[in-house]
Specification:
4-stranded mixed sheet
Length: 485
């Protein structure tokens, strides 16, 4: 929320756009409407101009009521905009120092409303926000939004140009053995392989009357050579840097050709490596050193990335483990907002059939509590909290998992008890984001936002001030910090 009494302290950024608009509704606001809706949401200010020094100042709109009425006429016109995602509470007239301006708060669109575009052609009329400006999306970005908007997830598609011979028999056998171990006596135990795959959702009947693999079946049980025929950008990668230098100590690649390269086998190849050497102070009742809340959360993070990756997207799924942090990166943007994901209670997997297959062998079924469980495990451990980052061009979701920091006890990360580089970097991003949405904040406010001690927040803010990221405002009381423009 903007404090309009201090509007000159704000700057245009990825969440704020200002238009002078003295001549009526600028045509460019519809590109911004599309861009904010398709990215992270934002605030559009009409009757506000950006001056040469980048400061924002209001001008008095001569007839804001007429402009609001005109805005509603256009946003509700399907020939002008693909969908109206606003309600009356999102558009209001504000009086700022005697000047009347229009404030339009544009939320992030739900996936089923995307792509939000202007005009009748989504390929040429879809925009996103980057920095202070809007850009026209590529065809690939638009098609990615259409895929996510579908009611039936893409992994349920029957691939009628492939036969079941593209599936890796040993992967299927390993899956069935695990299912029998975790669900003894299950009704599917006695089924033949073809019927089992159909019940599982890994295969289905095609228009030719024959059984073919589904996209989920191919991804879970196919070989990498066959998977890339359907998903050309498919790539799974795991790297470890556990020494004192930048030399990679362990690598798993889906295209190495010495294993199947599918999702099922990747999970089990990576899982033990991911938790190996990560010491948690708090063991579960079983007393198993590898069955703590942190280890469960790491397994959850791995399964979550496999279930929610967009395998038609670019960049591949990459997991990097270092002594002080783990980074999980997968193609595809969040289908729900990161804040909603952190809060829990809402599930919208990109690959519902793959999720079900993992659930049947008790993987990714909430044992670690999903994303809220990951945060809870890190908070209990006393480590710096994970951060979720959304990137565009190409769409990528990145989860940063620090293995130290905060009030840690028993961490295996480097510089135990100190501020490791990734912790500082991710917290700097969080502070910068907070100071984008708020003019300024005290050290105490930021400490509560980051869930760290005041002393630690003070140290971080001093470093950010020295680096020129934030500036300190002396108020005669507790100093205020604001983002440097």
């Amino acid at each position: 929320m903007i404090d309009f009494s201090k509007i000159e302290q704000y700057r245009e950024n990825n969440r704020i756009e200002a238009k002078r608009a003295l001549g009526g509704l600028p045509e460019s606001i519809w590109e911004t409407y599309s861009a904010f809706a398709n990215t992270l949401g934002g605030i559009l200010l009409l009757g506000v101009e950006e001056q040469k020094d980048k400061t924002l100042h209001t001008v008095d709109l001569p007839d804001p009521e007429w402009m609001v009425e005109e805005f509603w006429n256009i946003v509700n016109d399907p020939d002008r905009t693909s969908v109206n995602i606003l309600s009356p509470r999102h558009v209001r007239i504000e009086n700022v120092n005697g000047d009347r301006i229009i404030v339009i708060t544009i939320p992030r669109a739900q996936r089923y409303d995307k792509p939000v575009h202007v005009g009748g052609d989504p390929i040429s009329g879809t925009y996103r926000r980057s920095g202070e400006g809007d850009y026209r999306c590529t065809r690939e970005e638009v098609m990615s939004m259409f895929r996510d908007a579908a009611v039936q997830t893409r992994d349920m598609k029957v691939l009628d140009d492939m036969g079941l011979d593209v599936l890796h028999d040993e992967s299927i056998l390993r899956y069935r053995i695990r299912m029998e171990e975790r669900r003894p006596g299950h009704a599917w135990e006695e089924l033949g392989e073809t019927e089992f795959l159909c019940r599982l959702g890994a295969a289905g009947m095609g228009p030719d009357g024959a059984v073919h693999p589904t996209a989920a079946g191919l991804l879970m049980f196919g070989t990498s050579e066959e998977i890339v025929r359907e998903f050309p950008h498919y790539h799974l990668e795991y790297r470890e840097y556990m020494g004192n230098d930048d030399n990679c100590t362990d690598t798993i690649l889906s295209d190495s050709k010495d294993w199947s390269g599918n999702l099922h086998d990747f999970y089990f190849r990576v899982c033990n490596r991911l938790i190996r050497g990560v010491r948690s102070t708090f063991r579960e009742e079983s007393g198993d050193a590898d069955d703590t809340a942190v280890h469960k959360a790491l397994r959850e993070a791995l399964a979550n990335s496999l279930v929610n990756a967009d395998y038609c997207g670019c960049g591949g799924l990459v997991i990097v483990k270092r002594r002080d942090r783990i980074t999980v990166s997968n193609p595809g943007a969040f289908r729900i907002g990161p804040d909603t994901a952190r809060s829990g209670g809402v599930s919208d997997p990109r690959n519902a059939a793959i999720l079900r297959m993992f659930h049947l062998i008790q993987i990714g079924n909430g044992v670690g509590g999903g994303i809220p469980g990951i945060y809870a495990a890190w908070k209990k451990q006393g480590w710096a909290l994970p951060t979720i980052e959304e990137r565009f061009r190409p769409e990528t979701t990145v989860m940063h998992l620090p293995l130290s920091g905060g009030n840690e006890a028993g961490s295996s990360g480097a510089d135990s008890g100190g501020n490791v580089p990734v912790q500082k970097d991710t917290r700097e991003m969080s502070v910068a984001e907070y100071l984008t949405d708020n003019i300024s904040a005290t050290c105490g406010e930021l400490a509560r936002y980051l869930e760290i001690e005041n002393e630690e927040a003070d140290h971080l803010l001093r470093e950010m001030a020295e680096a020129g990221i934030v500036v300190t405002l002396e108020t005669g009381g507790e100093p205020l910090y604001k983002r440097r423009s």
